[in-house]
Amino acid sequence: MTGTRFPERATSRAVLIGTGTFDDPELPDIPAVQANLDALRRTLTHPVHGVFAPEHCVVVADPKDQATVGAALSQAVRESEDLLLVYYCGHGLLDEAGLLHFALTGTDNQNIGWSAIHLDLVKRMVGGARAKARVLVLDCCFAGKAISAMAGPSGLAVGQLNLTGTYTLTSTTATAPSHAPPGATHTAFTGSMLQALTVPGPLNLDEVHRHVDQELAGLGLPRPQRRSVGAVGELSLVRGPAREPEAPSAAGAPAPADADTDATSDSASLRRAWAWRTIPAIAVLSAMAALGNLLWGGSNSTSSLFSDDKVLVGLEGNTDNSLFLNPAWGNFSAFSLEAVEGVLEEADIESRPIRVDVQTVEQISSLQNRDVDLNAALAMTSKRMKEVEFVGPIASGALGLLVRAAETTGIRKMADLDGKYVCTQEGSTAQDTIRSETYGRIRMLVEPGFHSCIEALEDRRVDAIVGDTLPLSAFELENNNRLKVVPNLTIGGPSKYGIALPKGHDKDCTRLRDALVKYVGSGKWLKAFRTRLPNSAQHAEELQPSATQIDELSCRG
To answer: Is the pTM of this model over 0.70?
Structure first.
């Protein structure tokens, strides 16, 4: 456990909001919400280990309208001095403008803006609190059938507050669904968070996020996101486990949990798994590798990436955890994922692809550490080719500029940006390209992700966004053409995207390479490109990779 700070009980406030039943038949009920609220309140107000007084932890269950939620939030905002915690679980809905709202029992899915709570309202209220630390936890989701995916075409499950002294923890990224397994007591995210709050510790917020991240990734579910502004990540929501650690059974596994503390997990196997998680993962993996070398001799017996029933496919996710949903990257992501799925099918690989959102700066390390098995669309730079293996290209493009639509004619070449600000995201190849070229006095603004860049562009804090043209054209489409890619302008050399995999899997690489050639040759690539990236459809044939290109650039390790 790293640094931990405990909030002051007397001056801390919590508001737990959950909507699990809905009047609108288009919004399915979420039975797990009430259990989430009950268990979280018991944990946070535990007489020994909780950090909140029971009277200072308010539960707002199935609120009918905004006034009900507003009254509870307003009181907590006024009274909190040390910690303000706001939790919401339910449907996250988008209006026609793509703005996030939190659904209430009386929410009308056809009239979201007037019947649900707008995110900006919550932002203003939380931002106005005088509390030293403000924590927002969002478990926004839709219920489905088999594994209840709690986010649909109008659903959102990710957020962030760009305010000093805030910490945001969310059940998933902006584009991936959260989950509530059928019959489970809790939603997957909140259930794992409750488990983290009741293990020997206590864990601070950053450690809770890591625990939940490992738990959900291990189950093949979308990974939670977090954003900390200030040193809030060292804060702990409990002073220790809500139950005493149990003595190991004869088999070495913990005994069943106390009957009066049902908050932590729906599965006994998940509870038993904690004993393994106290051992550093790298130590376990190193020991296994050493044992393998002793038994079989040497270290070249790398197993196939596709020996399991699922394959984890990494993709650049919501890197800046933006509160508003702009699913533009999703268009390019959807094409990349469809291409990977098509390649796996052509290779007769039965492993089921599971998307895992990975931050830009972690694209390579996630492969090297085997957090994911493949990366669906990674830029094929010479540096990266030394670090991981590639199959591709699956798409080609170049760096370009995204500007406000009304200013397209005023920016036709890089010289037009002399003395102005250009935004790109952290970890993008655009940073090195801009710095290596001579473009006058262009000023760079580097943001955690493209969503922040779009906010800066719309607020006129920057004059353009630089990035690869394919994702930028997706942003153009999703912003209803309010933003435009500057035509006939490219920066630096061409960029190519490929399916990346860890080094040492030569047979898997060759298998995927041959399958990609078949996929492109079948016409499926062309169909996917035109469907997913309609703004670039006129260039589809010239951007389609050839068999020669794929053969020359794939599996060069």
So the answer is: no
